[in-house]
Amino acid sequence: MAEGITLAEQGVIGKGFLEGLLSSMNITAQVNVREIDEETVELSVNATPPTELGVLVGPRGTTLQALQEVTRTVVQSKSPGRTDRILVDVAQYRERRVAALGRFANQVAQEVVESGEERALEPMSAADRKAIHDALSGLDSVVTRSEGEEPRRFVVVSPA
Asked: Is the model's pTM score more than 0.85?
């Protein structure tokens, strides 16, 4: 827990910010707060149907990433000490993205094993790189590493 403000209070501040943003954008959605662990709170934005939420995700989740950073900044501005980890998700985008990256990573791993040659993937965000590393960590046939400098950092998949 951060000093001076509880994780639950951080969730309330983040929720209030997101609800105000949604209202100003004329988007009808619910914001739910869930404590994932002792240092992480997730704010999830959902609507039925979720069609109008795409504007909050953006291409490859870039708008969602920015929304998370702005939300974190708002919470930090209201906290006398440091804040904990604040995640924002919209219409289960992150869960779907991790699943899609896992399928992609396994396909790449199969190609690497068959060809015997390593493969460098396109540059991606830290969260996407982590999803690739996590998806392939249980395989004995390949190893992964990150290379390059932000924002052009990428994953390399190599035969073990």
From this structure: no
